[in-house]
């Protein structure tokens, strides 16, 4: 009876020990994400023991010459990890903000293939580890150079985009300046200015609305430059200069158009600009404030 009790007790202790180790593995895999700060009374050995590892791997991962650590010193965590089915070294490296080189060097791996239930050590947030292997050091150097190149290329692309945006802005400002200069004179595009009106503008097209036809109220065909107006405000047939809008589908700065169309909702100081684009793009114009100059024929 005593012998059976002793055997049962031993089995229970083994089970609890295994559960504790499994619990540590799970906690490490789920919770460990960064670094720790050395507390008073702690040594590198005691810290490593807390995580089920050795001082040697902590020294390599944290680039330490010896076991000496100071209170308040930050150390990247190193912990044991059991590979599960489907694990890939690249995924593990990305998850714990480390690198394939660091994991390989710390565990003496000769290839990137991991086996299920294989025990390895993970250096969290460590891009490379101290090693005497010249080959691995070269690999780490190549990785740093590749990342530096990637960063430089990204910065070059951002600079190129910024330059293009600045050029577009300058072009737009020049167009606006030219437009304002023309507006301040007594003529625009060779036409004398008869009247200036602040108006609300919308846009219309025929694509998708073919049932309305392509003829204007004047009997002409709709085309770029045609605008719909209230004839009581702007007589049909009038040449107009429209500016002040914001649309990629109309000339920058402004355009000379002709009042040849009308609309049921175009009353008073309203103008509807024909845009030769699909309805989805025409509707992006919305309602905008514009300046309309009636020109002498």
CATH topology-level fold name of the largest domain: Barwin-like endoglucanases
Oligomer: single chain
Mean pLDDT: 82
Widest sheet, order of strands:
6-10-7-9-8-11
Pairing-aware structural class of the strands and helices?
A: alpha+beta
Provide a brief overview of the structure.
Helices cover 39% and strands 21% of the residues. It has 297 residues and is an alpha+beta fold.
Descriptors for this entry?
297 residues, 39% helix, 3D_dom, Barwin-like endoglucanases, disordered N terminus, Membrane-bound Lytic Murein Transglycosylase D, Chain A, alpha+beta
What is the topology?
Layout: H1 2-31, E1 35-37, H2 44-50, H3 55-62, E2 74-76, E3 78-82, H4 89-95, H5 100-107, E4 119-123, H6 134-184, E5 187-188, E6 191-204, E7 226-229, E8 239-243, E9 255-261, E10 270-274, H7 279-282, E11 288-295
Parallel strand pairs: 6-10, 7-9
Antiparallel strand pairs: 1-2, 3-4, 5-6, 6-11, 7-10, 8-9, 8-11
């Amino acid at each position: 009876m005593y012998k059976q009790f002793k055997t049962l007790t031993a089995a229970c202790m083994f089970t609890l020990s295994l559960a504790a180790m499994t619990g540590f593995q799970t906690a490490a895999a789920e919770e460990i994400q960064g670094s720790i700060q050395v507390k008073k009374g702690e040594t590198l050995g005691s810290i490593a023991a807390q995580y089920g590892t050795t001082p040697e791997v902590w020294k390599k991962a944290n680039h330490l010459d010896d076991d000496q650590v100071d209170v308040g010193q930050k150390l990247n965590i190193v912990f044991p990890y059991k590979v599960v089915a489907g694990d890939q070294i690249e995924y593990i490296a990305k998850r714990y903000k480390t690198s394939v080189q660091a994991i390989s060097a710390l565990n003496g791996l000769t290839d990137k293939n991991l086996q299920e239930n294989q025990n390895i050590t993970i250096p969290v947030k460590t891009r490379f580890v101290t090693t005497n292997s010249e080959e691995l050091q070269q690999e780490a150097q190549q990785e740093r150079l590749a990342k530096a190149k990637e960063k430089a290329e990204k910065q070059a692309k951002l600079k190129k985009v910024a330059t293009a945006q600045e050029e577009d802005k300058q072009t737009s400002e020049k167009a606006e300046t030219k437009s304002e200069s023309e507006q301040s004179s007594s003529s625009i595009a060779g036409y004398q200015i008869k009247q200036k009106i602040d108006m609300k503008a919308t846009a219309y097209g025929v694509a998708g609305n073919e049932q309305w036809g392509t003829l204007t109220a004047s009997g002409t065909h709709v085309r770029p430059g045609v605008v719909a107006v209230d004839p009581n405000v702007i007589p049909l047939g009038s040449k107009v200069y429209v500016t002040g809008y914001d649309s990629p589908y109309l000339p920058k700065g402004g355009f000379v158009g002709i009042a040849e169309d009308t609309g049921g909702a175009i009353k008073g100081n309203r103008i509807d600009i024909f845009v030769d684009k699909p309805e989805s793009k025409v509707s992006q114009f919305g309602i905008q404030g514009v300046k309309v100059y009636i020109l002498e024929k």
